[in-house]
Specification:
single chain; about 260 residues; alpha/beta; six-stranded mixed β-sheet; 6 strands; about 15% strand
């Protein structure tokens, strides 16, 4: 049974929920790593417990879906705790998605892949909410959401330009292997955006050449590959020819 503990606000009741009843948020875009920071969090949890409760929502099967607090949940698991303090909220799918993204997006270290899928999830949720507002408004009024594009609103909230929001979301079209190279900073952000327009088959060709020949696509090379793809003229031979070309910053300069 859930046990009520510290009630700090009449609308925010903190309850202790068994760890086995807590489930991760579907398609949670933020990675939870067992790194040095996690070990520090585990030690803090052992000494002081969880200071800030997680936010969850109850499911029909009696389990709870994590909305905010995935790292704290992992720390509790590693600390071998049987329960975790949580705040239970009634949230729609879109409300839960937006809260999940907002509670993580301001972290100090966020990978490009995390931003990409987080922005995509939140943008879709915001668009759904905009449609509902549109339906609820009468014919003579103007919905607030229609005054600005949804991606502009998202950009203002997270401190990104609309164009950058679009670029990050394009990364979700990369194959996992190339997206991992972006996270590892082996492929730069802008060339990666252009590569996302290639077919999955051609992306795997790029990945194979990248791995075996250790050639990093420049922005101009990636743009050329995208152009040939759109024209229907991109072949494996063309990809290799373009990627093998020497870049200006790779030439040896003799003083």
């Amino acid at each position: 049974m859930d046990k009520k503990t510290d009630v700090r606000d009449p609308d925010e009741i903190v309850v202790e929920i068994e760890m086995e009843r807590l489930r991760a948020f579907p398609n949670h875009p933020f990675k939870v790593r067992d790194d040095e920071k996690m070990m520090e969090t585990v030690e803090s949890v052992k000494k002081r417990g969880i200071i800030f409760p997680a936010i969850v929502r109850k499911k029909k099967d009696g389990t709870y879906e994590m909305v905010a607090g995935h790292r704290r949940r992992r720390a509790c698991q590693l600390a071998q705790l049987s329960e975790m303090p949580c705040i239970v909220r009634e949230l729609t799918d879109d409300e839960a998605t937006i809260l999940m993204v907002d509670s993580n997006i301001q972290r100090e270290e966020i990978l490009p892949s995390e931003k990409a899928f987080a922005y995509k999830l939140k943008l879709e949720a915001m668009k759904h909410q905009g449609k509902r507002i549109d339906l609820e408004e009468n014919e003579t009024s103007t919905p607030v959401v229609s005054k600005l594009r949804t991606d502009e609103i998202l950009g203002e909230e997270v401190g990104e330009s609309r164009e950058n929001i679009r670029r990050y979301i394009r990364l979700t079209y990369l194959i996992p292997e190339l997206l991992e190279q972006v996270d590892n900073k082996r492929i730069a952000f802008r060339p990666a955006v252009e590569l996302s327009y290639l077919s999955e088959e051609n992306q795997y060709v790029v990945e194979n050449i990248f791995e075996f020949d250790e050639v990093t696509p420049s922005l101009s090379q990636a743009i050329r590959l995208k152009k040939l793809e759109q024209e229907g003229n991109l072949t494996e031979e063309k990809i290799e020819e373009i990627l093998q070309q020497e870049k200006p910053n790779q030439k040896e300069y003799i003083k």
